[in-house]
Design brief:
The protein is an alpha/beta fold. The chain has six helices and six strands; from the N terminus they run ααβββααβαββα. The chain has two domains: about 80 residues; about 130 residues, 3-Layer(aba) Sandwich (Trna Endonuclease, Chain: A, domain 1). Helices cover about 60% and strands about 20% of the residues.
Length: about 230
């Protein structure tokens, strides 16, 4: 009997030891879990702080982007206004150029050509526009023709004549005249570059290219480089 009791007590003690061990292990696991939870909470806190800071930076960048877009919109509007102003200026320039052709050079061009080139035009065509199918158009400020002498005078009138690109474009235009106006293929084409006045440097450039420079002196039109071009042709 005593042996049985002792055996039971020994078994109970072992069971209690196991229970104590399990409790101890459980407490250790709980502490570890608690520590891991605290560490996770700290990481989450740091992550949230960094996320908030990142979002704040994004908001700041978005605000700056909105300001930049607003500035771009303002610049676009300014460009539109400038474009309108430039279009108006171009329109005014075109009107002034039209008046130069109609009021200054057109009425007297036949007299000037007779004086300097010894032939009286029987045809004076102002603001002549010629279109060919499939090609760009050709615009001539004044086309004066001496039919009997087979001579044609192409006059380009400029309100601002001293730009090199204008002379280049006029020279290119002269090269296209006979292609756009076939009946002039048998004519001698004489280029005349006209303005109220022009710089000496411009006249010199025209002379080198054998383009006659016409200006207004007093109430008459004069070709101011006719002698120089004649000298070149000799």
């Amino acid at each position: 009997m005593a042996q049985t009791v002792n055996a039971r007590v020994s078994t109970l003690e072992r069971m209690m030891e196991k229970v104590a061990y399990v409790q101890q292990e459980t407490q250790i696991e709980i502490r570890k879990l608690s520590e891991e939870m605290r560490a996770f909470k700290e990481e989450m806190k740091v992550w949230r702080q960094k996320t908030d800071e990142h979002i704040a930076k994004i908001d700041e960048r978005m605000a700056k982007t909105d300001e930049h877009i607003a500035k771009i919109d303002q610049e676009i509007e300014e460009i539109r206004n400038e474009t309108k102003s430039m279009n108006k200026q171009w329109g005014d320039l075109a009107n002034r150029l039209g008046r130069l052709v109609e009021d200054v050079f057109g009425p007297s061009i036949d007299v000037a050509i007779e004086k300097f080139f010894d032939c009286r035009p029987d045809i004076v065509d102002q603001n002549k526009l010629v279109r060919k199918r499939g090609e760009e158009s050709l615009e001539l400020d004044i086309l004066a023709i001496c039919s009997e002498e087979r001579k044609a005078f192409v006059v380009e009138v400029k309100s601002n004549p001293d730009r090199e690109e204008y002379i280049n474009k006029f020279e290119q235009k002269i090269g296209r005249v006979k292609r756009f106006i076939p009946y002039l293929s048998e004519y001698k084409i004489t280029p005349v570059y006209a303005a109220l006045s022009m710089k000496k440097e411009t006249i010199a450039r025209l002379t080198k290219r054998r383009i006659y420079a016409m200006v207004v002196k007093g109430d008459i039109l004069e070709v101011v480089n006719i002698d120089e071009i004649a000298e070149i042709k000799r």
